[in-house]
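Q: Could you fold this chain for me?
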Amino acid sequence: MIQYIIRRLFYSIPILIGVNLITFAIFFLVNSPDDVARMHLGTKYVTPEAVERWKQDHGYHLPLVYNQSASGVSRVTETIFYHKSFRLFLFDFGRSDSGRDIGHDVRQRMWPSLAIMIPMFLGGLIVNIAFALFMVFFRGTKIDFYAVVFCVLIMSISTLFFVIFAQYLFGKLFQMVPISGFVSGWSMWKFLLLPVVVGIVAGMGGTSRWYRTLFLEEVNKDYVRTARAKGMSEARVLFGHVFRNALIPILTGTVVVIPMLFMGSLIFESFFAIPGLGSYTIEAIQRQDFAIVRSMVFLGSVIYIVALLATDITYTWADPRIRLS
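A: Sure. Below is the predicted structure, expressed as structure tokens.
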């Protein structure tokens, strides 16, 4: 197991380098260092001297990836890519193009993101699995039919509709919870309740139907018929056997969501004015702050790789026949 983990960690290094290169290439295909300087200085009456001065101050005066005027290793190290990306592997995010400490911003903004995404993730997982097992328990009946229709209806409606409708109904009309904002401490639940509930409801359609399909594939297998023949109740069969054997694809699907627990949800943080990493990334894209963008992309890649590794390890718990070596 330990050898497997070490090997996977070594495999992640070229992946992270590739992610950095692709992010770097996409950004500078659209914007040159001069464009970045003008964006931060303002588009009107910016002199070439001011542009060059800003580039010197922020490290954008160097060549992008290869410095022909240098010699030896300096041809690679004296470049924008090396200065802006190499320190990421030490989790030194440096400063943004506007001068802010990115590491400090990440540490401050990660908690609001986790505060909204962890309840949404865990609540959604419990609700979707329970609702899918409910549909499977009543499979072939009108209850199952209308439950599937409900899922399709939820899938057909945009998440933005749920957000706007919930803000108007519960925030403005009934004034039960605040429409937007965030505070620390125990009072934060007032600001998190609405986005968490909206996130769970908006995600029920597709996820519950997918879990239902996974459970239906298991429910007619030989081991389930054997369990029924031994006199087990349908509820015990579903929760004790069907659910356990459908865990592997469920665990695989949750990997995609795990990085969002840290990075935050772009839509919910933007519409509910929650100062998390999702809104932080959106603001950086709008300002074309390359330092923040590549730091967030790198951080998301690291979390995703760790989540994949954790998922592979949990496979051995879900299915003892799987052995990692």
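A (continued): The chain has two domains: 2-90, 109-318.
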